[in-house]
Amino acid sequence: MNKQTYNNRLKNNMHVDELNHLTINGVSTVDIAKKYSTPVNVYDLTLIKDKISAFKDAFRTYESKTQVAYASKAFSSLALFEWLAKEDVSLDVVSGGELFLALKAGFDRERIHFHGNNKSLEELETAITEQIGCIVVDNFHEITMIEHLVNKYNVTIDVLLRVTPGVLAHTHEYISTGQADSKFGFDLASGQVDKAIREIQPIEGIKLIGLHSHIGSQIFEVEGYELVIEKLLKRARDWRDSYGFDLQVLNVGGGFGIRYTEEDTPLPLEDYTIAIMQSVRKHSKQNNLKLPEIWIEPGRSIVGEAGTTLYTIGSQKTIPDIRKYVSIDGGMADNIRPALYQAKYSGVLANKVHDTNEEKVSIAGKACESGDMLIWDITLPEPVPGDILAVFSTGAYGYAMASNYNRLTKPAVVFLENGNDFLAIKRETVEDHLKLENSIKNWK
């Protein structure tokens, strides 16, 4: 494989230095692996900032307000929330834990949106007493709980209705959420949205300001968003006329695709945004509606490509005429996506990117599972124990979905910006696992 082919795998702000080592944002990944050990998740903050700017810049031509809300389920940390709070973005949280972290980070409460299909009474109580920006209501039980809480505390809360529009995005079945058969939201076709609007409108403490729809993830086309917008704005006209519902906010979710391997062909981020704006303008005019605010919720498309995971090569196994397995010191415990979604990744050997003694290998994780395979059939310079494997585009749903399977410890997280590194999350230790344990010797 020639030098250009390896260079094609590299992401923004990645280079190969004079030592043939991979650098990210001016920092040697080999030095990072030595300093923090492996596995270690590395985030390029400059690239994250660039992704946010791409969305915000594309929205500048829109005639009403807009919000870019980072979908924190992709990756969350105290340091990231503190950093994002200065970037003029909103925040989408989906649990009490994410909400607690956002509040701890000093995030502007008015810019926090709370999602989830089974919010507890305690979680909703925190959201309402902290007076966050809005709650995305997912079901009728939730309406009852919110009504109880706003009456209890004599407050008002803004809400959006999550609508399941019956639009199936072209994505993996496990991350497709817009079809009617989904655990999320009020079904459009069966009249559940109409019923929810009728229930909410008379409740004094609940202010229904808009609609939300999310059709899936890792989407490489704009037609699904256009179809959802057309359906919802047509119905919004009917709901205005029938129930007096004034649509102020249309949240079309996220799901914008990124490049994991050379097989992926995502659109430029501004293409999604421009198509959304054009469709909202068109169908607002056709249905005689005021131009609503547009909100989006990118997560993967903001942090996915900014993340790289560094592993150390260990044992190897060659099966003649079949394949060569090369094992690393991580795997499904820190990145479940290949086992869960059959997700594909690419990467390089960070300590010898352009070496020419190549071979095809398969990267195996260290968990005691035959399905713990990170990459099947990748061409690399011949790996030896101690080499550093850099796996690209691991910034979304890697650390966020990490587990302690086999009592493996979660990796450290390091931020990079302007040639500097910052330890955002310390490496977990086996002693950390004991903090919640209780010895049976204490049972009396």
From TrEMBL:
Cofactor(s) annotated in UniProt: pyridoxal 5'-phosphate
Biological processes annotated in GO: lysine biosynthetic process via diaminopimelate
Binding site for substrate: 300, 337, 341, 369, 397
Binding site for pyridoxal 5'-phosphate: 255, 297-300, 397
N6-(pyridoxal phosphate)lysine: residues bearing it: 73
Orn/DAP/Arg decarboxylase 2 N-terminal domain location: 48-303
Catalytic activity: meso-2,6-diaminopimelate + H(+) = L-lysine + CO2
Active site: 368 (proton donor)
Top-level taxonomic group: Bacteria
Pathway(s) of this molecule: Amino-acid biosynthesis; L-lysine biosynthesis via DAP pathway; L-lysine from DL-2,6-diaminopimelate: step 1/1
Role: Specifically catalyzes the decarboxylation of meso-diaminopimelate (meso-DAP) to L-lysine.
Subunit structure: Homodimer.
Similarity comment: family membership: Belongs to the Orn/Lys/Arg decarboxylase class-II family. LysA subfamily.
Designated name of the protein: Diaminopimelate decarboxylase
Species name: Alkalibacterium kapii
Name of encoding gene: lysA
